[in-house]
Amino acid sequence: METSKNTFTKQERLSSVKDIETLFKKGKSLFVFPLKVVFTPKKVEKEIQENSQNKIRPARLLISVSKRNFKKAVDRNRIKRQIREGYRLQKSEFDLSHIDTFAFICIAKEHIDSKFLHKRIKKLLVMLENEAEK
User: What is the pLDDT of residue 54?
Assistant: First the structure.
């Protein structure tokens, strides 16, 4: 989904319980402190089916921050906003067409600076993009 605006639309959000279960059961993972990424590549059959319907679904994202590490919802929501913003601003630089679903999981135990987090998100997106070559 190529748009000139850096948006994070509803189609890009992963909310299906079935898809989330599949992601965590069959997904591969990458880690760059303070984030872990779990992802599932698109299946060839799915791509053929989607292309025949002229609907190319973008990679869908889930963001998770542990209640164990951040007791207050305000803190968890802030970190989720920072992650979402970092992804939203940088996703257009990368080709994630080979990724079906992925999740950013925050592993940190203390607050994180936005600039540092955005650099780490960029590093993870580069790693995800390189997974297509393997």
Answer: 55
What does the buried/exposed string (b/e) look like for 43-80 if buried means 16 or more CB atoms within 10 Å of the residue's CB?
Answer: eeeeeeeeeeeeeebbbbbbbbbeeeebeeeeebebbb
Residue pLDDT, tens place only, 67-76: 999 999 999 9
Domains in the chain, CATH or no CATH each: 11-133 (3.30.230.10)
Residue 19 CA to residue 12 CA, distance in Å, equals 13
Using the predicted structure, report yes or no on whether residue 18 has a pLDDT greater than 70: yes
Tokens 């164990």 correspond to 68
Q: Return the closest-CA partner of residue 15 out of 121, 107, 89, 103.
A: 103
Q: Strands 28-32, 35-41: parallel, antiparallel or unpaired by DSSP?
A: antiparallel
Q: What is the pTM of this model?
A: 0.85
